[in-house]
Amino acid sequence: MIRIARPFISEAALTATLTLPAPAKLNLMLHIVGRRDDGYHRLQTLFQLLDFGDELTLTPRHDTEVRVSPSIPDVANEDNLITRAARALQDATGHTGGADIQLTKRLPMGGGIGGGSSDCATALVGLNHLWQLGLDEDALAEIGLTLGADVPVFVRGRSAWAEGIGEELTPVELPEHWFVVIHPGVHVSTPALFRHPQLTRNTPVSTIRTALTGAGHNDFEPVARTLYPNIDHAIEQLSQYGSVRLSGSGACVFVQTQSDMAAQTILRTITERNPGYSGFIGRGVNQSPLQRALADQA
Length: 298
Ligand SMILES: C[C@](O)(CO)[C@H](O)COP(=O)(O)OP(=O)(O)OC[C@H]1O[C@@H](n2ccc(N)nc2=O)[C@H](O)[C@@H]1O
Ligand SMILES: Nc1ncnc2c1ncn2[C@@H]1O[C@H](COP(=O)(O)OP(=O)(O)OP(=O)(O)O)[C@@H](O)[C@H]1O
Hints:
alpha+beta, binds adenosine-5'-triphosphate, binds 4-diphosphocytidyl-2-C-methyl-D-erythritol, single chain, Ribosomal Protein S5, domain 2, ten-stranded mixed β-sheet
């Protein structure tokens, strides 16, 4: 555990409010190449950050309370990854202040696009700044990893090639394409998919260079398509517009386009044709809007 002396916090910092983005990610490819002794799967994946996501407004409190509003249906305040991030920071540093956190949720839950993980990372990075804790990026990524395998990439804020369980990150420069992301109205449980007996867990190890050519696939896709007919249907519908991939363990599927306008047309067509589906358009970014917003504060 990281322990630092409790820093002095000015009265001005206690009245400050910080609004920060929590962007989505896509897994442009995701290979499962093995399993660790603790049951976690070893992956190779290409994380593409998007300029679309949730938003958190953080206001410090004098007491130790951490309150997220509005609450997420079926998720208790103390289980919300935002609250858990704040608690982990308090535990690591001995900080005795709290926060009121307003959450603007735009990313579908259980979408495979890292909504909860990104909220968690934004809370870690934002509260570290607001509470003047002075933890560096490595320390925040380490705390983040205890809360979710997808948290470190959002803390570090670069599109990246990832290995291990997603925490061994190599930043990459990807073309900043537009993406249409479709959520086919089903909620996928990541642990349930990782446990599935039919999941491929022995894809041969690839290289970053191969992945950057656009080669690769998502090992979750066959199982997700079998278990969730809507995912299968969404992939079929989108495939007329290009190469379709599943993100993470699903449920979101996506296709790349050359322009915002092309993306708008596809999104409108698919969501009008399928009333249970929703979606959004995001532009791929190499640097996270979170780190850019924080740099603007400095
Ligand atoms: C599928 C991905 O989204 C790809 O980016 C991530 O690997 C999942 O990351 P995440 O949602 O942050 O996952 P966590 O909250 O850490 O783990 C949820 C559960 O998924 C399983 N899990 C997760 C990550 C991993 N590499 N292997 C696993 O087997 C574990 O059973 C774990 O208890
Ligand atoms: N702030 C939060 N936002 C979303 N989900 C949260 C949050 N806090 C806790 N959760 C829980 O985490 C679960 C997974 O949510 P999330 O939206 O991150 O899934 P995901 O997009 O599939 O994530 P990943 O791509 O990292 O696997 C939710 O079903 C919910 O129970």
